Amino acid sequence: MDAITRAELSATPLPWRERMMIRAYRLFLENRMFESRALYEQLIAKDPGDVDAWYGLGDAWFHDTIPAPARFTPSLRAFKRALALDPGYTLAFEHVSAILALASRPRPNLVLLASDSIAGQGESGGKYDEPAVQAAVARARAESIRLAQDWVTLQPATPRAHEALLTALLAGRDFAGAERELARFRTAAPRYPELLVDEARIRVAQGDVRSATTRLAASMDSLNGNDLEQLRGANDAVERMAAAANLFAYRGNVARAARVIDQTSRLRLGRAASDDEPPQAERDLMQWHRLGELYSAVGVPAAGMRRVWESAAESARSSPKEKRGKALAAGGSAAVGLLTAPRPDAAPLKELTAMSGEQPVKEVRALLALQQADEAGARKALAEPEPTMSMEKPGYMVFRRPLAAQAWYLLGDYDRALSLLESFEPDQFSTTQFDMRWGMVGRVRLLRGAVLEKLGREADAKRQYQLALEQWEDADPDLQTLVEEAQKGLARLEGRS
Question: What's the CATH code of the domain at 416?
């Protein structure tokens, strides 16, 4: 942001087009997307062949906070126009691939109605398993593969092009094609240690999570310092390597997942993020964010969450006021995790609220109220309108649906709790970057099992407990309490039958 501000201050001697581009990008960085788009549209009106203006317009739609269907159609069209003007425009390829990937999921929230039109799944008028929705998924997958193949043809040694094609092929369940693409890229660009994660992705997509995790662990152990050093400062590659933590978290191998996060945090920043912030400080913040997300997702270890929160809180206390928010946000997920852990501790979250002056999301406040046996307060919190997304202040990651489901379960509304847990499964999660939801799956299955028990659906409940135990078959000792909870649920149901 400092760099673009300096560029704007020194932009007066520049031609009108360059001044407008700088101003539009500054508005984009300030999250003033409507104003940013207005400037890009002025540039396009003056020169319809301005490829950078078309890309900027698509980007300002893509990153807006309005609902996804309303922004993704104009975004998709602008990016495709940029590609028509410049077929090798890498960032446009990347963004179109991201939109199509969302529409390619087995249970999509977005559907591709035509090659450049996106609608919300509800707007399409169909349920996930209806022919029209599945036809839209097939359309998105075919378009995604075609686009990625074009990208790979133009830029055969570009990692992002490889990742786009591999992702599209896996979404389309073309496993042989995915194996061929991995072999092709290894030949075109052999010095990429993060490709071992791609091997695991292929096995996971085929349903072999156990083997994928075992082999990935062995491959990660075989890497030496020189292998990893190749990634330093190459943040895209580091993010792909960080995705290894997803599988380890899913399997309950929390210590190994934490080790991946530690390694990738050290590699992520090869230089200072800004003139006044040394890379070590940025690395610490990133590591606290990621470790807090990991531990709060899995639910253990409490000592790890407490260590993350105390480090972030201490950093906040010693930071200037204007930087305090970033440090507190780095510990936010850990504070929420301690509240929702097997042995809840609300003190860090209360400390976070007092230090930041910001209230947690309504689902967290509902759980706080329930800890105090305040059902009315919990219902009042859950009934609040949905908050408007804001990018103005530093934030931390929580996934609200499982938290809301936990609150409604405790309130006795089992149908609502179950609906909130629908589709919370790995096929909806990222495999190309760290995604804390992988670590939440086991606990979601425990909660889903408990809800199904209450609804009298014993066979379905039994299956959820079995799935949790299968994924945790070689989990760290820290998860023993959760494993025992699944074992007790299964024994309880088998005793009844």
Answer: 1.25.40.10
Contact 299, 340 (CB under 8 A): yes
Q: Is residue 238 part of a domain?
A: no
Residue 50 token pair = 């301005």
Rounded mean pLDDT, 259-286:
72
Pick from 440, 448, 452, 358: nearest CA to 398:
440
Whether residue 488 is contained in a domain is answered as yes
CB 166 within 8 A of CB 178: yes
Closest by CA to 299, choosing from 462, 484, 492, 488, is 484
Say if CB 481 and CB 342 are below 8 A apart.
Answer: yes
**pLDDT tens per residue, range 423-481:** 899 988 999 999 999 999 999 999 999 999 999 999 999 999 999 999 999 999 999 99
Residue 466 lies in a domain: yes
What pLDDT does 395 receive?
A: 77
274: β partners: 277
From the list 331, 334, 351, the residue with the least C-alpha distance to 394 is: 331
- Give the position of tokens 């292998």: 227
What the block records as the tokens of 241 is 């390597």
pTM for the predicted model, two decimal places: 0.88
> Would you say residue 275 has pLDDT above 80?
no
Q: How far apart are CA 412 and CA 461, in angstroms?
A: 17
What is the rounded CA–CA span in Å between residue 134 and residue 232?
41
The DSSP symbol for 478 reads G
> How many distinct structural domains can be found in the chain?
1
What number of CA atoms fall less than 13 Å from residue 319's CA on the CB side?
19
- Residues 6 or more apart whose Cβ sits within 8 Å of residue 121: 108, 109, 110, 111, 128, 133
- Give whole-number Cα distances, 444 to 2, 299, 466, in Å: 42, 11, 13
